[in-house]
Amino acid sequence: MMKLRPTSLSKSVYFIMKNYKMFLIPLGILFLTSASSLHSQILKNAEQTSLSARIPIGLSWWTPADDDWRQSLAGIAGVRAGIELFPVKVGLTPENGIIRLYGRALVNWRIGAGSKSTYSALFNEFGIQAGLFARLNITRQHGIYAGAGPLWAVELHSFKPKYGEKKTMTQRGTAIFCTVGYNFQLKDKLSLFLEFDYEHFITEGLVNVIVPAAGITLGL
After folding, report:
1. Cβ atoms of residues 60 and 77 within 8 Å
2. Are 199 and 208 within 8 A, CB to CB?
3. Are the C-beta atoms of 169 and 123 separated by less than 8 Å?
4. Which of 5, 145, 108, 123 is nearest to 72 (CA)?
5. Which residues is 137 bridged to in the sheet?
């Protein structure tokens, strides 16, 4: 029967397995040193700013998302204004790729009219929305963003059927909104935005809407 001779590699592996404890401390020191060096490099390259605020102001057009409402109600226009609060940020790449989380609150007013083929109507909605947003700065000028949150609204309907008296109705409800948008930075404290909202009402009887909007954002 042949007797196998241990090779230099097998001797090394056997030595490491037998004396593994003596390697733990040097490996731990190497790991901590490397992590500390990486952390210092991240902080060195990071871009940091203090709390900042912006004021978005825009105009919108809207349309009902449901076919039944779309046949009897047409959106005309809307106005919106609010505030965006940006907390302290730390970005790993100052020039691009920075993702920022921020909060936004908006107040909006929209007006619509009934279709002449059904009945004469006037629609007004006053809403307040508050949500959490994330913005990705592709470059210093171009950015995209998305967000979601709750919305509270009051709808005022004034309508007159073809054969009947004029009626007025008020409804209150809660919705969930989702927003996606594009931001173009003109100056340090001035930018343009284009965005699309979808508002889905949890309260029955209120109008789910799709809202394209455009406007300017002013930095404070």
Report:
1. yes
2. yes
3. no
4. 123
5. 98, 143
Buried b (16+ CB within 10 A) or exposed e, 108-120: bebebebeeeebe
Q: Which amino acid is at 147?
A: G
pLDDT, one tens digit per residue, over 175-218 is 999 999 999 999 888 999 999 999 988 888 778 889 999 999 99
Measured CA to CA, the distance from residue 155 to residue 126 in angstroms comes to 7
Amino acid sitting at position 112: G
How is the chain split among helix, strand and coil, in percent rounded to 5? Answer: 20, 60, 20
3-state SS class at 62: coil
Q: What is the pLDDT of residues 21-45, one digit of tens each?
A: 555 556 556 655 655 555 455 445 4
Whole-model pTM?
0.70
